[in-house]
Amino acid sequence: MTPVQEHITHIRCTIPDGVTLVCVSKFHPSSLIGEAYEIGERDFGESRVQELCQKAKELPGDIRWHMIGHLQRNKVREIIPFVHLIHSVDSLRLLETIEQEAARIDRKVRVLLEVHVAHEESKSGFLPEELPTDFSRYPHVEVCGIMTMATNTDDEQEWRRCFRAAKAALSALSAQTKMPLRPILSMGMSEDYAIAIEEGANMVRIGSSIFGNRTY
Ligand SMILES: *Cc1c(COP(=O)(O)O)cnc(C)c1O
Fold first, then answer.
1. Tens digits of per-residue pLDDT, 25-73?
2. What residue owns the CA closest to ligand 1's atom 12?
3. Region 118-133: what's the mean pLDDT?
4. How far is the CA of 29 from the centre of ligand 1 (A)?
5. Are 146 and 173 in contact (CB under 8 A)?
6. Can you give the pLDDT at residue 180?
7. How many angstroms separate the alpha carbon of residue 207 from the centre of ligand 1?
8. Which burial class, exposed, middle or buried, applies to 88 when counting CB atoms under 10 A from its CB (0-12, 13-18, 19+)?
9. Which residue among 44, 152, 205, 216 has the greatest number of ligand 1 atoms within 8 angstroms of its CB, and so is best to mutate?
10. For ligand 1, what atom is nearest to the CA of residue 208?
11. Is the CB of 91 under 6 A from ligand 1?
């Protein structure tokens, strides 16, 4: 086994059934994604459109590509034909662009609304009370749940506060809208995913614990 495969095997033991692991491969080469693919991983997350498209071209067609980074509206068209899930919908204008581009090719695109619960100005997303609840104008978009990032800290109580706020936002949203039976709650990264799972995450996004540190 390669180091990447060992890391995944170890992490897999800590993730219960029913929680989807998204391997965050941004800034890492396709060869390492291939190693993860070889032992059965199919969900990969990227943060930049160009990198995502390039890797999708090089790698097997049954990979489920997750767009997890901030998405510019002028880049939406490139990923709409094949993206599995866009986690980072952080504005109504972006939602509208996704609707337009999805309608253009008559595809229904799955997205998560990003909710801002962290004590950090730099993060994006809707405030919980600003989350849209009327999706009737977006017939080519399926809103499947919520994504969030906790405050970048090592304070476990602060992580829990963030994750609880995101879970509450999802409960409120699914009470007010037509959502899948089991909506997606995408939260938890290398440092905090165990806590996120305790607080109800059913999708975690793990990068550096699998692939090592990124060099930007
Ligand atoms: C990079 C990134 C991750 C993975 O972070 P790690 O700390 O490397 O596990 C998860 N979610 C988002 C939105 C990211 O941008």
1. 999 999 999 999 999 999 999 999 999 999 999 999 999 999 999 999 9
2. 68
3. 91
4. 16
5. yes
6. 85
7. 6
8. buried
9. 205
10. 8
11. no
Dihedral (CA of 77, 81, 86, 92) sign: positive
Residues in the chain: 216
Cα 206 to averaged position of ligand 1 atoms, centre (Å): 6
Quote the Cα angle for 140-87-103, to 5°.
15
pTM (whole model) above 0.85: yes
**pLDDT reading at 216 higher than 80:** no
C-beta separation of 208 from 214 below 8 A? yes
Q: How far is the centre of ligand 1, averaged over its atoms, from the C-alpha of 151 (Å)? A: 12
Say how many Å lie between the CA of residue 106 and the centre of ligand 1.
31
Question: How many CB atoms neighbour CB 33 within 10 A?
Answer: 22
Which residues are registered as beta bridge partners of 89? 113
The pLDDT assigned to 174 comes to 94
Residues 133-155: tens digit of each pLDDT: 999 999 999 999 999 999 999 99
Q: Is there an atom of ligand 1 within 6 Å of 67 CB? A: no
DSSP letters along 51-87, please? HHHHHHHHS-TT-EEEE-S---GGGHHHHTTT-SEEE
Protein residue with least CA distance to atom 4, ligand 1: 207
Triad 177, 183, 188: Cα angle to 5°: 130
